Amino acid sequence: MHKVVEPKILYFGTPVVLISTLNEDNSVNLAPMSSAWWLNQSCMLGMSSSSQTVANLLRERECVLNLPSSDLAHAVDRLALLTGRNPVPERKANVGYRFEADKFGTSRLTPQDSDLIRPPRVAECPVQLEAIVEQVHNFELPSSLKAIEVKIIRVHIDERILMTGEKDYIDPEKWSPLIMNFCEFFGLSPKVHPSRLAPVFGPSPGSISKSN
Q1: Is 15 strand, coil or helix?
Q2: Rounded distance, CA 55 to CA 169, Å?
Q3: pTM for this structure?
Q4: How far apart are CA 4 and CA 14, in angstroms?
Q5: CB 144 within 8 A of CB 48
Q6: pLDDT tens, 93-146?
Q7: Dmax over Cα atoms in the chain, in whole Å?
Q8: In the beta sheet, which residues pair with residue 122?
Q9: Which of 40, 106, 109 has the alpha carbon at shortest distance from 68?
Q10: Cis bond upstream, residue 126 (ω within 30)
Q11: CA of 168: how far to CAs of 40, 101, 203, 204, in Å?
């Protein structure tokens, strides 16, 4: 039987994204988030305007969306309750956030130069997406939430998760993204059933891959 409930959050399982941006002094901020979805070559990010990441995105108009695999949960969790905003916004301070300038050092992750933009990539993440800000929308007025549309301008993929014999396709059976589900970390289970969409949108025998 279904019941009517009022959950505090609606995180029904979305990929974790580590967003790297530049602060005003050109130092690097690295922040985990999970309200993101992709369409074609763009991504929509949902974040609070009180965050340092949003301030950086509005000013610099560029970022890297680094997608960690499930085995990096420990590194992502080291960034929990940290902010690059100083002083810490009152709302965040009240729930235990503290300021941290060296997010890469704290997470024990490695910065890696990007090709087209200034913020660095996260070397340990199998998927790294260089992006530029296209549009910013207010969300759920009145609130401090922003929906930020970014355009992906370069894609870096660890060759170990590419499909055998294909240079532009990720093998979903080799890629296990870290998932945030109701503020807890999860990985993906093994494939439960083949999809009839796979041959339509993925590589098929005799197909020619489109290279970027």
Answers
A1: strand
A2: 34
A3: 0.90
A4: 23
A5: yes
A6: 998 999 999 999 999 999 999 999 999 999 999 999 999 999 999 988 888 899
A7: 58
A8: 111
A9: 109
A10: no
A11: 15, 36, 9, 13
